[in-house]
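Quick illustration, no need to memorize.
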Amino acid sequence: MDQTIELEILGLSSNHSQSGSFTLVMGEIGGSRRLPIVIGMFEAQAIAIEIEKIIPNRPMTHDLFKSFSSNFNFSIDHILISDMREGVFYAKIVCKNASKSVEIDARPSDAIAIAVRFDAPIFCVSKVMSEAAIEFNEEEEKRDPQKPIKSGKAGTSTPKSTDSLKDFSLDKLNQMLDKAIYDEDYEKAARIRDEINRRN
């Protein structure tokens, strides 16, 4: 197998050039390269709600995958971003149980949404990193206005509308949080939750 590099999720930001899509930024652990991957809204939401530890009203597809695998006693060993052809990334989910290990083809966005639920490591083959990664130094990151917001290990960019949340009482914010979760508007739920946390 090709040499692999372990990655971590650094941030998730809406993609201004492509409506309805997001850029997931992966960082090389112990290195300075960044691997940006454009993903769809549903997968971005699935990754964000797990990172932000928001519990949805009903299981999402990736939660269902986790329940299914747990009930059949197999786990996710790791995720591998295995190839890039014509600008499209390819990934494999490496599953295992007591007796065997199996590789399943997947889109990187789905594979990463599953990885965060299993706390599984994410790797990328060095060939893909050489072709698609961007070298960053700290000075460039400070100057880059597109850089995703970080909170701990990972973060999601939040729109300016957080200012308007300051006008609501704590009781009202809790009601709004319940409604946002019920409506499955997880981006709004994350913003409301952050405002509640700021006051506590």
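Residues 1 and 49 are 33 Å apart (CA to CA).
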